[in-house]
Every structure is written in C-alpha cells, then in structure tokens.
Amino acid sequence: MNDWVQDQWLLEWPNVWAAQQWIVPASVIGAGLFVLILWAYRSIQAPLIVKLACAAAKTLAVILLAALLVEPMRSETKPVPGANLFVVLADRSQSLQVIDPGESNTRAELLKKRLDRQAPWQVRLGQEFDVRRYEFADRLSPVADFHDYQADGRGSAIVASLDSIADRFAGRPIAGVLLLTDGNATDLTEEAIDWSKYPPIFPVQIGADEPATDIRVSRVAASQTNFEASPVTVTADVAVTGFPGESIVVELVDEQGELVETQTVPQVNDGQSFTARFQIKPGERGVLFYQVRAYAQSQKGLFDDPSKSSEATLLNNSRTVMVNRGHGPYKVLYVSGRPNWEFKFLNRSLAEDDEVELHGLIRIAKKEPRFQFREKDSNANRIFTNTDDEAKEQVEQYDEPVLLRVGKLEPGELSGGFPKSADELFPYHAIILDDLEADFFTQQQKSLIQEFVSLRGGGLLMLGGGESFAEGKYLRSPIGEVLPVYLNGVSPRAGASELSLALTREGLLEPWVRVRTTQQEELQRLKEMPSLRILNEVGALKPGASELLSVVSATGESRPGLVTQRFGKGRTAAFLIGDLWRWKLHASSHDNDDFERTWRQTIRWLIADVPQRVRVETIAKKDGPTHPLEVAVQVNDENYQPLDNAGVAIEVTTPGDELLRLKAEPKDAVSGQYGSRYVSRIDGMYRASVIANNPDGSEIDRIETGWVADPAAEEFANLRPNVNFLRSIAQQSGGELVRLNQLDSFVNTLSDREIPIAEPMVRSVWHTWGVFLLAIGLLSMEWGLRRWKGLA
C-alpha cells in the first residue's frame, strides 16, 4: 500500500463530533459495560482463548455503540459537478503503431478501445468535471470525442501541447490533465522545464516496458571527401533487438528503387548495434537521394509483403539521405612560366573530373626590355615575326610575354593575361603557379593574389621549378608572405641526386595525400615510384604549417616536399618537387591511375571549402512543434563581401511535384544573410532552387539543395515508453503516473484530491453501511462462539 492509499484510508475516520455533550455519558456507559463483560466472562467455565475472543468481540461492539452516542460525522469537500475543467489529452502520433511483446494489437488499437466515450472511466469523469478532449501529434487539436481516433501523426509534440493547454486555461479552474502517451516526445530541447507551473498532469503510460522485436536504422549520413577513393560515403547506424544469432542485411537503394549495394552482417547479438558504410560514385550531378534499409535475412521480402515481418514496426527499418553533387564546377587558374610535362599530365588528370574546370595561361615567350633598339618598325613580339598575325593589333607586343590560353574560356576571358582586378580573379577558386618568377606579376597583381587567399578564401598552390620559391625571387613579396615556408635562410642548392618521397605522420592522417587503401599499400607505392631530381630549397616551415610529404636524398637527408597551411580565409600549399611528371613516365604507373588520382585529390583539397558568392545551408529547427526547416543563404558581392539588399527567392519542389515559391528575408543582425522557414507537411524528398539576384535584378547564381522530411526517425528512435520523462512530469506538476488498465480506479479517486472549486459535505458515520455491519458482525460473532461452545 503506497502513501497515497494510506492517506485516503485515514481520511475515512470521523473528524466532527456532533453531540459532544454525550462524550462523558458515553464514556461512563462504555466503561461500565466493559467491567460487566470482564466480570461475566471471568465466572464462565471455558477455555481461556474462547473467553478472550468473546470478550474482545463484545467489548469492541460496546465501544462502537457508545461512540455512536456522540454522533461521529465526516466533514469533507467534493468537487462541484461541472464547475472544474478536466482535460483528456490523447497522443495520436505514429509511434503508437508499435506492437508490444505478447500483444496482437498495436498500442493505438488498445488505446482506442479505452477512449470509447461510454467507457466507465469517461462516464464517471463527465459526472463530476467539465471534460475537454484533445488529440495531439505535431500540433494540438480539440475533438468532441475519440470516435475517429487514428495514430497517424508525424510527431509527438508533448511539451508544446501541454504549453498550449496551460496557456488556454490559464486563470480557469482546471483539476488536471490526463495525458495518454508513450512519452517519446519529439519536441524536447536541452532547456529544463519547470513542470510545477503547470496544472496537475496525470500521464497514462501507453506501451509495455519490455523491449520489442525490432531492427532500426537509427542514423544515416552522407559525407563527400576530397580524395578519389571514396568521393561519397553513406554511413548508417543499425540497432537490432530480438534477432539473436541471425544475419542482418543492409541495402543501399537509389531514387529509382534500384539496388546499389548490399552488405550482410552475420550472427548479430541481441541488442547489438553496428555501422554499415557504403562507398559510391554517383554518375549524376545535382541533388540525389539514397535510401538505406535493413532487415533480417530470414525475412527477405518483408518490404513487399509486411506479413512476413515479426517486428514491432517496419516504419523505422529504412531512412533516406541526401547527397548534393551540385557544388561545381570549380574554376582553377594554372599559370606557368613555360610549356612543360606537368601541365600536360595535370590537364589530362582533371579532364575526368566534371566538377573542376582548368584554365591555363602558359607563357611561350618572355617579354623583351621596353627600351631596346628595334631592327624593324613592328612592335610585335618576335614570336610573330614573318607570320600573318604580325600586323594584328591584338598580338602581344615585344615588351609583353606571349601567353597561350588553354581551357573552356568564355569570350574575352584572360585575354589581357593574368587578371588585374578582383572582378576577374575572384570568380576562380584556386590558383596554381608553376615555374614562374615573381617579376611576371605587377605589384598590384601580387597583392591581388594575397587578397584572393586571405579575403576571398581561395586556394594557392606553388609547384617546384627553376623559377619558383626562392629561385623565383618571391622573398619579401605579397605572394611569398602567403606561402607556408620561409624563403630566407635557404642553403645552397646541392647537386643533382636521386630523391624519394616519404609520408610524414601528418601526411598519413590526410586522406587526400594517400592514394592506396592501406598504409602498407601506400608505403609500397612510394617505394616503387621512380627517383626524382628537382627540389626547391626553402627555409623553415612557418608556424602552423604542416609537412605532409618529405623528400629523402640518397644520403638519407630529409627535406620538406609538400607543406600546407591556412592563410586568412583560404589555404596554401607548397609542392617543392619540380619533376613529379617522371612518375607518369615510369613503367610502374602504366597499369594504374595513381598519378592522375594524386592530382585530382590535390586539386580537390585545394578547392574544398572555398566560399561561393551564394552559399546555402538547410538547418532543422527544434523551436516549434512542427520542426520548421530554415533555408539560410549567404550572399556576397564581387569582392566576396556581404551583399545587402539582394533578392533571394526559393523554389521548393515537394514530394508530390508541387512547386512552391518562397522569399528569403534579410536577417537584421547579420549583413548579407537571408533566410526563410518552411514546414514539410509531407514525408519524403524535397528539392529546392535558391536564386540570388543583385539589387539591380541581375542574377548572381542559382544553387540547388534539398532535404528529407523523415519524422519517423525521431518517432521511432526508442520503442520503449519514456517512463522517466512521464514520471518527472507527474511528480513536479503534482500528478501521478497511471497505467492504462488502472483508468477506472484512478478516476474514482479524483474526487478525493485537491480540486479548485469544491463544496463542503457532512455525512454521518452511523449512516454508513460499513459501521452498521461491523457492529452487528461483532455481536453475532460473540453470540456464535458462545452457542458453539455451549456456554450459558
């Protein structure tokens, strides 16, 4: 018996004595009768136990009758019928579609039977209270009754629903809230909730405490990396309950329902969780969706025929993830001091990457001194001598270098040589400088390259060569300040020797530096590489720089080979080797694409995280019961500074192919940021196009994005009822946790609890059948014992 039951039992004792003037006479009469009883039974010849039993029964009966002379009464309060409100709040979220162990019906079906308006507990509740009925899932809805109850809601907004009830009936007499739910709320936050400010809440636990048989895909995520071996990795966490020793099958399916890959995990233990990883190369660009689904191997085909399943639910056996392959194309500007093998192989390697566009400026002739006696009247560079182009105005003059433009260039792009303004340079994502001296650039262009890295956030890679680094006189130049190595304190160049590459500890941790799958295979690859001969000597590494590759000479001396560093918003790298192309000419590279993969991964790292003029991020919010999704947009101008007064529109395509148009509003607190909120009312895959326009109406860019509305992920994160959460609500609000099968007995006790509006009621104890039967029973028992033993 708990404390509350004991308190209720004590409350049945009388607390008012109507005839207090009879207290003394009743005591005298009772004492006199007690003495007579003792004297009478003392003289009777009978066993002691019989005499004691008879005397005790008659004594208790006499005391009871004597007490009735004082007219004991019970004064209490009862709720005024219909004056107090009582809320019945039923959860109709899809998490109640679970079948508990030992049950043939779902939790929702069991609950619906108890929600019948003719059920005894509802009838009794309506006799004493003004009952208000509500259903809730992701939002609160009033109902007249629960005749059409269905557990098909997309969320369990328990906190928000109780907030609405408290606000709606604030200042009104509300006796309590009967909350019928499994307690698995989807709107819980990290903030603590003070339930003591709420009316008394009586949670009714729906569902059994025993773990249900279930296979659940608890989390799925997609990550894109810069290294070629695994451009997209889909990771899924799977939890298994109730399938001891069975094999679990995990499948990856594309949007068209085609099976991409299958993994089988053998002999899974009961309660075990594991992670499945799929490495894929999508053949398409843009926003793509993949589904991960898991099932027991013995129940193959359950997605087509659910009757094969023995699980509590199949709604958490699959989850969908989005992969965005539409960030490119990225533009890389390669500038070289002369035609060389390096550009040939680099260009060939990137030709297989649809997301990277390589634009080249190859100098094929240097400029001549401006003041030089000319043998002819023509000012054209000597490379055009005796050609049909010599007289054309657009050919390079003798005091200008002759540049070869390579790549898919727009009309007029790079026609003036290396960009001279931010408008020309900042559309690129990375710059590669190869075998090119510092004097090739004007002072303005050198400062522009530094701003390209530090302010625009671009990548800069300098390759080794006869006119790079210290040999190219980059010391004390803005470009030299960007590089991750010091160019002073350079030791004299050593003679040509055989050089080999070695991965440093930091290099082993960088996926884009590695090519092979395992460390052993990687070390074997480096061992088989041909010897190199050209290395640029530099000074020490700058603070914060990382040496990823070392160059080891024949004498065992180690020097930096590849060094990287963050600089401002961007990143820089120094590849100090000048003849990496020898690797491709070696016989060991003919049967693999390690060389091409190295270049692709290096360029991918260089352009990773480079800011776009328009950046889009989708953020799931938990500050409301409907879990709105925020599309956050950052818009920059041509100099990659925040752009205000831009126009941002969002076109959303729903799973039903309905096209919705939203407008992103500026955020007052942050310059250049815009946002719009959208509530996904339909489960499934959403695609969105974000169109950003300049203040004059011209389009800046159009970015594709998307998201997945999957409320079942949170709904079925835990199939057990959240009893601890429900108990804390009850304790702090002054309520009580109730079982579903205890509703009738619970409702009968409500009138004895503290009620806002109640009326006094006084009743005589003597008029209760219990007291009358007790007195008659005691006297009858005493008489029966005497007759049984034949006593006089």
From TrEMBL:
Entry keyword set: Membrane, Transmembrane, Transmembrane helix
Keyword Cell membrane: no
Transmembrane helix among keywords: yes
Membrane-spanning parts: 20-41, 48-70
Domain Putative glutamine amidotransferase residues, every copy: 416-607
Family annotation (InterPro entries): Class_I_gatase-like, GATase1-like
Protein name, as recorded: Putative glutamine amidotransferase domain-containing protein
Organism: Bremerella volcania
